[in-house]
Amino acid sequence: SYFYLGIIAKEQGDTSKAILLFEKSLVYDDKYYNAIMQLGNIYAESNNPKALMFFDRAIKVNEFSDEALYAKGLYLQKENLYKDAVALYETVARMNPAHILCRYNLAYINGLFGNYNKAIDYLDQAIELAPEYADAYTLRGTMKEQLKNSTGAYNDYKHALQLDEHQELAEKGLKR
To answer: Exposed/middle/buried for 155, CB within 10 Å: 0-12, 13-18, 19+?
Structure first.
């Protein structure tokens, strides 16, 4: 019951109360995965390094949780710890072949380091899994633009805007 009260507090925007309630639920069951993940996500949202402790704890409770591995990878990515994030994302991709966001983030990180072809491969996989994922088309357009593939970039930007007219980066890309 403390867990669900924590969810209610979180949804009402009372993060402090939510943390207390999730922690209280862990007093009764220290391996309560959902409470551990909620705490990890709350701390990750505020860039608090405690997030890593909770994600590691969740992984210890369920080593096959692609959710916990991905969340930890996302936190590490936001902290610019790209090598560690990539390792986690690659694990998630192997564990869950349908995980789209890990592929998108692998593409994003590869793009940061100039590995445009590898980024495009990951984006191709993400698009194959979710053909309506406009952000993937926009990022793939950016990668193609970096490779001087103007036609491919144009087509991806145009497709992204057909899927989501609010793709500002795709709009800017079309203008270039």
So the answer is: middle
pTM score: 0.90
Arithmetic mean of pLDDT, 45-63:
97
Residue 159 CA to residue 132 CA, distance in Å, equals 9
Sequence-distant (6+) residues with CB within 8 A of 124 are 140
- For 121, residues 6+ apart whose C-beta sits below 8 A from its C-beta are 107
What is the per-residue DSSP string for the chain? -HHHHHHHHHHTT-HHHHHHHHHHHHHH-TT-HHHHHHHHHHHHHTT-THHHHHHHHHHHH-TT-HHHHHHHHHHHHHTT-HHHHHHHHHHHHHH-TT-HHHHHHHHHHHHHTT-HHHHHHHHHHHHHH-TT-HHHHHHHHHHHHHTT-HHHHHHHHHHHHHH-TT-HHHHHHHH-
At 73-105, the pLDDT tens digits run 999 999 999 999 999 999 999 999 999 999 999
